[in-house]
Amino acid sequence: MTKALKGALLTLCCALVVVPFLGIVATSVSTREDIVRNGGFVLIPREITFAAYRALLTGGVVPRAVGVSVFITLVGTALSLVATTLLAYGLSRPGSFGHRPVLMLVVAALLFTPGIIPGYLTVSELGLLDTYWAVILPAVVNAFNVVILRAFFMELPSELLESARIDGASDGQTFVRIVLPLSKAVLSVIGLFYAVGYWNAFFSALLYLNDSAKWPVQLVLRTYVVNQTQLGVDQVGTANLPPQEALQMAILVVSIVPILLIYPFVQRHFTKGVLVGAVKG
Amino acid sequence: MNPPPTVTRRTLLAGAAAAGLLTACGSGDANKNTAEANQGVNLPKYTPSTVVKPDLPGTPEGVLDAFLTYPEPPVKQFTAAPGKGGTVSAFVLTGSPVPPPKGNNPFWQELDRRLGVDLQLTITPSGEMATKFSTLIAGDDLPDLIVPALFLPNGVPAGIGNLPQWMATKCTDLTKFVGGDSVKEYPNLAAIPTAAWRQCVYNGGVYGVPVPRGVAGTLVFRRDDVIGGLGVDPDPKSFTEFREMCRKVTDAKANRWACVNAGMLVFIIQQMLGGANDWRWADGKLVHQVETEEFKKAVSDAAAMFKEGLVHPDSFASNAPVKRWFGAGEALLIADRYTAWPQFYNENIAGAAFAISPMRIPTYDGGGLAKVWQSNAGSTNNFTVFKKADDGRIRDLLKLCDYLAAPFGTEEYLFRRYGQPGTHYTMQNGGPVPNQAGVAQTALGIRYIVDAPDVIYIPGRPEATKLSYDYQKAIVPDSVPNPVVAGGLFSDEWSRKQPVLGGIVSNGQNDIIAGRQPLSYVDEMRAQWKAQGGEQVRKDFTAQFEKLGIK
Question: What's the gap in Å between the CA of A86 and the closest CA on chain B?
Answer without folding.
Answer: 33
